[in-house]
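Um, can you check?
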Amino acid sequence: MGKGDRKTAKGKRYIASHGNARPKSGGSKPAVVNKAPAAKKTAVKKKA
């Protein structure tokens, strides 16, 4: 599980190859987009 392990991302970087552990496309996660803050719910007063 080090440099020589072809199944890990570290091993794939060492031997300069790509695969499931190291996809060629780089980052697969989309950038986080800040949404508008959710409307806060106001407290409902109960009738006595």
Remarks:
- The mean pLDDT is 77.
- DSSP finds one helix and no strands in the chain.
